[in-house]
Amino acid sequence: GAGVSQSPSNKVTEKGKDVELRCDPISGHTALYWYRQSLGQGLEFLIYFQGNSAPDKSGLPSDRFSAERTGGSVSTLTIQRTQQEDSAVYLCASSLERDRADGYTFGSGTRLTVV
Amino acid sequence: GEDVEQSLFLSVREGDSSVINCTYTDSSSTYLYWYKQEPGAGLQLLTYIFSNMDMKQDQRLTVLLNKKDKHLSLRIADTQTGDSAIYFCAEGLRSQGNLIFGKGTKLSVKP
């Protein structure tokens, strides 16, 4: 596609439920990144994929968070047993490869609200 | 460790220049970036500078890099109301695949 597509754009869920967030990167982009943006906290790195593998999972806040990428394309971020502190905007970005000078292309994000 | 710091708010009048400042701690940065985020949108890359450069100009945007002081700035000339947004500074490190972002500076442009 022309840009990075994320779905849903908004998600309201009850505390304790599981949610899945989807990211469809730009075609041909091998690197894919998930960030979380909370009010006043800037962008918090969650996980990075090179192809289908995730060399760096250090940013995942707890074992309730997991992510996968299949076919070197679409990625899903799953949050199990959601908590109110998980409420944030989850941003996905992709790039042609790691260390690209022109950085990333970001999606518009999924706004997650846990009630 | 890596840390990127920015002031949180800046307010300017339309037509004035805006200068947004950023400091970072890791001297092994390869590239440094400025991203813009408008309300309800993702981040849009504005410009970037390679770490061995000290200045880059792109139309109304001027990026200055002081590598000794680990200080990066973004100057927007003739600031317009459409420039109102949050501006993020980010550094790319040789050792990591991801960019490290600051918390963002919210620029408000008054008519």
| Termini gap of chain B | 41 Å
Assign an overall shape of chain A.
Answer: globular
Q: Quote the beta fraction of chain B.
A: over 45%
Class per helix and strand makeup of chain B: mainly beta
Report low-confidence residues of chain B grouped into runs of 5 or more: none
What's the β-strand tally of chain A? 11
**Strand segment count of chain B:** 11
Q: Enumerate how many helices of chain B there are, as a single number.
A: 0
Explain what this protein looks like in three dimensions.
The complex is a heterodimer of chains A (115) and B (111). Chain A starts with a strand and ends with a strand. Chain A has strands spanning 5-7, 10-13, 19-24, 31-38, 42-50, 53-56, 65-69, 75-79, 88-95, 105-106, 110-114. In chain A, strands 2, 4, 5, 6, 9, 10 and 11 form a seven-stranded mixed β-sheet that branches. Chain A has a four-stranded antiparallel β-sheet with strand order 1-3-8-7, with no helix packed on it. Chain A is globular, with a radius of gyration of 13 Å. Chain A is mainly beta and 115 residues long. In chain A, strand 7 and strand 8 form a beta hairpin. With 111 residues, chain B is an all-beta fold. Chain B is built from no helices and eleven strands. In chain B, strand 6 and strand 7 form a beta hairpin. Chain B is globular, with a radius of gyration of 13 Å. Chain A binds chain B through residues 4, 31, 33, 35, 40-43, 45, 48, 50, 55-56, 59, 91, 93, 98-99, 101-109, and chain B through 30-31, 33, 35, 40-45, 48, 50, 88, 90, 92, 94, 96-104.
